[in-house]
Design brief:
The protein is α+β, with helices and mostly antiparallel strands. It has helices at 2-43, 97-106, and strands spanning 65-70, 80-84, 89-92. It folds into two domains: 1-45; 47-121, Beta Barrel (OB fold (Dihydrolipoamide Acetyltransferase, E2P)). Belongs to the intercrine beta (chemokine CC) family.
Length: 121
């Protein structure tokens, strides 16, 4: 019983000290990266948040989509991002005829491009 109680106490102690060390280390990491972040902003480095690296292989079913937007020119490949009715994003090829038809069906609907949430504007 004494051995298990000592082992349990040791585990509790290491957990507490480990979490404290992680908090301190995380703070130091942020301080160390701050000049790099400032340099990045000054040099104009920008990576668009809404880019597609591949297109869906499935056929676009427009009845499942509620909105869309086209990716910016800062992306490596042009794409149309559809927002389906359950909130998922689907990357599609803008040269695909079905994609173009769906875009016409949905009409030009301005939507927010916030990476965390998407809402109709």
């Amino acid at each position: 019983m004494k051995v298990s109680m000592a082992a349990f106490s040791f585990l509790i102690l290491t957990t507490v000290l480990g979490s404290q060390a992680r908090v301190i280390d995380g703070t130091l990491e942020k301080e160390r990266l701050r000049p790099l972040t400032a340099f990045t902003l000054v040099t104009g480095f920008h990576q668009p948040a809404d880019c597609c690296f591949s297109y869906t292989q499935r056929s676009i079913r427009c009845s499942f989509m509620k909105a869309y937007f086209e990716t910016s020119s800062g992306c490596s490949r042009p794409a149309v991002i559809f927002l389906n009715k359950i909130g998922k994003r689907v990357c599609a090829d803008p040269s695909n005829v079905k994609v173009q038809d769906c875009m016409k069906t949905l009409g030009k609907q301005p939507i927010s491009k916030n990476p965390g949430t998407m809402q109709l504007a």
